[in-house]
Amino acid sequence: MLKLVLLSSFVGVVAGVVAAICGVGGGIVMVPAFVMLLGLEQKQAVATSLTAIILISLLATIKNNANSFVNWPVAISCALAGGVVAWFAADLLKVLSNQTLTRIFAVLMIAFGVRMLFQR
Q1: 27: which DSSP letter?
Q2: Is 41 left (phi over 0), alpha (psi -120 to 50) or beta?
Q3: Spatial separation of the C-alpha atoms in residues 108 and 20, rounded to whole Å
Q4: CA distance 66 to 51
Q5: Rounded to 10 degrees, what is the CA torsion of 94, 99, 104, 110?
Q6: pTM (2 decimals)?
Q7: N or C: at which end does the chain have fewer Cβ atoms within 10 angstroms?
Q8: pLDDT per residue over 3-19, tens digit each?
């Protein structure tokens, strides 16, 4: 149990740093770490990372707002649209296999990574 807590805490530290400086952390850090380090299945890793990112995002948002970095109209419209769609899309976890979810995740990470790599 202690090992689980320590590994989870380490993943949280890395995710917190990445979230704070890159605006990401849930999917990019936590999901792979939960699967590879903690042995969670993909579905459980996705759901667990979304739960953990609530506090990480809230605290980073408070700090980023204090630094005047938040564009509130963009954040609110994106959050509302994304939240509504995520509510319904979360049911896909029930019907898609762990293998399919892992492949979708990997393809998206590669596609966005390559795109960002070649942006100016």
Answers
A1: I
A2: beta
A3: 21
A4: 24
A5: 150
A6: 0.80
A7: C
A8: 999 999 998 888 888 77
